[in-house]
């Protein structure tokens, strides 16, 4: 190859790199509006799951779904974690005490499916337990190295969203910390600092739902977020702006009383959770919507839940809706919502009903 050919090739490569750079920046900062559609244009009733009454669930505190549609149910009152088939048949009960038998205060709050059928449980504090599919202990800790607002699992990695306390710490670094199933730290991925850090410490709109894992990596939210934020710096998903979204004007102030903090929290729209509706579709849930978005005929806080749905890969334009139900879980193109305890034929009270709704991709989606 001659020197002239080398120079030409280098120039061509430079042009190619610059072209990619010029087109990537606008895509990363692109914001797409998500107009509000009626709920039944985005989600259709599918069926009702009746959990096996041979196992009584006191209160479903956390619900997770795997690729097979199996349900992992955390019972905060009963203190256990139960696996049910998609039909509702009980398969297995998991006991985190298998790993920490001498810990009488261990009460799992959340539980997620992980790779190889593993189950990961977390309490309201720092205790995390990893179990095999058949309930044997893999690893456990009474105190994680980091306080986490949520976690998700992808492949053989566990992703925990953590950050320091801005009321007491001078550090401005927060991150997603990646753990192995043996709860060894694999790496620390810095992420952007929340716009309102003091707001995010005392409050958690939907516990352990601040992060979820997708095919292109984890996405997370803060309470003031307009949309879920990708952890991967090279993620190209455009941001969605729901029609009902209005930004919070300010953070909590120092020296506020608990009552003042609660009043400030309740005053504005709150980004409550992010769900992996599919491996390429994110769903973000919002609460405390403005009164003008309230659905008619629904009392209390019901009818003021906002949902926005967007494709991480641009398969369809983002859309939003006002939901009459609160999503407890999502996966495989369905959302799951908890109902009242089912009355049984013998007069007893059974388990909470779980209603499934199928996601309807917008009609202008790419096939």
Short description:
The chain has 367 residues and is mainly beta.
What does this protein look like?
The chain is mostly beta strands. It has 4 helices and 26 strands. The chain has helices spanning 3-29, 39-42, 197-200, 258-267; strands spanning 31-34, 36-37, 43-50, 60-65, 71-75, 80-84, 90-94, 110-113, 119-122, 128-131, 137-141, 148-154, 157-162, 174-179, 185-191, 211-214, 217-220, 229-230, 239-242, 270-278, 281-287, 305-311, 319-323, 329-331, 334-343, 349-359. The strands form 7 sheets. It has a 5-stranded mixed sheet with strand order 2-23-22-21-20. A 4-stranded antiparallel sheet has the order 3-26-25-24. A 4-stranded antiparallel sheet has the order 4-5-6-7, with no helix packed on it. A hairpin with a 2-residue loop joins strand 20 (270-278) and strand 21 (281-287). The longest helix is centred in the first third of the chain and has 27 residues, at 3-29.
Helix content: 10-25%
Q: Count of helical segments?
A: 4
What is the total tally of β strands? Answer: 26
Distance separating the two termini: 45 Å
The largest sheet has its strands arranged as: 2-23-22-21-20
Beta-strand proportion: 35-45%
For the residues shown, what is the average pLDDT? 85
Uncertain runs are: 1-27
Secondary-structure element string: HEEHEEEEEEEEEEEEEHEEEEHEEEEEEE
- Main beta sheet: 5 strands, mixed
> How big is the Rg?
22 Å
Please state the structural category: mainly beta
Envelope shape: globular
């Amino acid at each position: 190859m001659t020197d002239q050919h080398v120079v030409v090739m280098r120039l061509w490569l430079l042009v190619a790199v610059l072209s990619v750079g010029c087109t990537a920046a606008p895509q990363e900062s692109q914001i797409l509006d998500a107009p509000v559609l009626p709920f039944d244009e985005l989600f259709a009733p599918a069926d009702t799951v009746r959990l096996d009454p041979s196992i009584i669930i006191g209160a479903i505190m956390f619900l997770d779904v795997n690729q097979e549609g199996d349900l992992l149910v955390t019972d905060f009152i009963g203190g256990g974690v139960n696996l049910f088939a998609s039909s509702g048949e009980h398969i297995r009960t998991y006991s985190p005490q298998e790993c920490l038998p001498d810990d009488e205060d261990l009460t799992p709050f959340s539980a997620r499916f992980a790779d190889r059928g593993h189950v990961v449980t977390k309490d309201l504090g720092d205790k995390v337990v990893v179990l095999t599919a058949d309930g044997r202990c893999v690893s456990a800790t009474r105190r994680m190295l980091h306080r986490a607002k949520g976690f998700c699992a992808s492949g053989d990695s566990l992703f925990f969203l953590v950050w320091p306390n801005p009321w007491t710490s001078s550090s401005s670094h927060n991150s997603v910390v990646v753990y192995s199933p043996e709860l060894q730290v694999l790496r620390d991925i810095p992420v952007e600092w929340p716009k309102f850090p003091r707001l995010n410490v005392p409050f958690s709109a939907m516990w352990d739902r601040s992060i979820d894992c997708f095919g292109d990596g984890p996405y997370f939210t803060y309470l003031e977020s307009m949309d879920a934020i990708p952890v991967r710096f090279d993620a190209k998903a455009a941001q969605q702006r729901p029609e009902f979204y209005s930004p919070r004007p300010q953070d909590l102030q120092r020296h506020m009383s608990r009552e003042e903090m609660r009043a400030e929290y309740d005053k504005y729209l709150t980004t409550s959770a992010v769900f992996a509706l599919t491996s390429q579709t994110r769903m973000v849930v919002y609460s405390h919507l403005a009164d003008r978005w309230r659905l008619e005929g629904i009392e209390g806080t019901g009818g003021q839940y906002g949902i926005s749905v967007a494709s991480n890969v641009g398969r369809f334009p983002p859309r939003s809706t006002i939901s009459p139900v609160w999503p407890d879980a999502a996966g495989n193109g369905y959302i799951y919502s908890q109902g009242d305890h089912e009355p049984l034929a013998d007069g007893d009270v059974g388990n909470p009903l779980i209603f499934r709704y199928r996601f309807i991709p917008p009609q202008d989606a790419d096939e």
